[in-house]
Structure formats: C-alpha cells, structure tokens
Here is the input.
Amino acid sequence: MNSQFGEKIRTLREIQHLYLRQVAPLLEMDTAQLSKIEKGLRLLKREQIPIIADILKASSDELMTLWLADQIYAVVKDEKLANEAIQVAEKKINLKKRKE
Amino acid sequence: MNSQFGEKIRTLREIQHLYLRQVAPLLEMDTAQLSKIEKGLRLLKREQIPIIADILKASSDELMTLWLADQIYAVVKDEKLANEAIQVAEKKINLKKRKE
DNA sequence: GGTATATTAGCCAATATTAGACAAGTCAAT
DNA sequence: ATTGACTTGTCTAATATTGGCTAATATACC
Here is the structure.
C-alpha cells in the first residue's frame, strides 16, 4: 500500500468499468501518467482532484483527504518520530484554526 | 509562527550566546543561510539536525520532531481537510508500525 | 502460436523547486 | 559615522519533478 489516493481512484475507475485510456484524456494526460498516479509514482495536481472526483462520481473531499494524507505519509513514513511529529503538526493546525 | 524548528534553534542559539557567524561555519553554510533557516525560509538538511543539536546542546529527537512537523504543516496549512488528512496519515503510520 | 487490448516501465527533455554564494540592506549600540 | 549582527534580494547552479514517447509486459481471445 503505497498511495491511498492512487488505490482509491483505481478502484473507483474499475467500478465504473473505465479504462485508463478513457479517463486519462479527460485529465489531459496520457495513460502512462495516469497509471503512475494510480500506482503512487506520480502526484495528481491538486486542481485536478475535483475533476477526477467528478469523472469517477466520488467525493472530492474524500479524494482530497487521501491525496493530502499521502503527502503527509511521504514526509514521515521512515521516521521513528513520525507520530510525535504528527501530533505537533496537528496542534499547530488547531491553534491556527482557533485564530481564524 | 512559521517554523517551529527555526524558532527553536534560534532560541537555543540565543541561550548559548552564540552568533550566527559562530554557528553557521560549523554547518558549512554562511550566516545568511542560517538566518533564513531560523526564519523558516530555508530547510536545514536532515542529516544536519544531529549536528546542530550537538552544537546547541539540544535533543536531536526534539529538533527532528519539529523539523518534520514543519513539513507536515507545510502540506496541510491552508487545507480545510487538514485534520482529516492527518488522521488518515496517522492511521497508516500505525498500521505500518504494527507490521514491523 | 499470433493478435489485440490494457497497463506499466524506462528513458529523455522540459520545467520547477531548492540551495549556495554574494552583495547590499537595516537596525542598534557606541 | 562606524561597527557588529542579522536580514534581504538576486543570480546561478544543483536537484527534483513532470510530461511525453516508446517499448515491454500481461492477459484474453481466436
């Protein structure tokens, strides 16, 4: 399991019985790129998330959450202090939210 | 508050009554760079964290945690789904840890 | 076996991001 | 006005990421 986002969109695509070659052009990319995105070897652009959510009839928020989570995971995945770092980051986010 | 790591090392440096020009060469950089790192405008290299921890007589783990947290924060700081993403990432980390 | 379709891997060029080096700047103290 | 500490801006070089193409692989069907 290397990319929760990638796995999710692959699953969704398969449920819709769509091929890479059908979906890729809607995102203005070739099938090889989309394949890599599904395998977590490439990142989908942030602004394309709503588009693919629409194509795959999925929740944009859910996909965005997975997309962000993948990036957080990439930062800490090999770190023994991963959990501590996550806690600290979370605290800072919440401080920020309170101010807004 | 833009970089918890930067703020921390600045504070530590001031406690030790050290100047940028004294610390920077030990990290093989110039004062301008270190200044930027303290202000969160540049990233210290991961492998330099133990070195600066040593110079500033601080806990390498603590500094590493802040350094990682800054990077997580950078990913999600403007995201409304920040907390959800953090939860998902954390879950995945814990799954991974359990496997090891 | 041979063919067709879907996906993936590998490579290279283009682009974007980050770092490093240096000069010039501010600010405070004297 | 000079000095010392730090900051800012800019330019270039190094690094990383992306996009696009082509070839390889896998699977199914005849």
The mean pLDDT of chain A is 95.
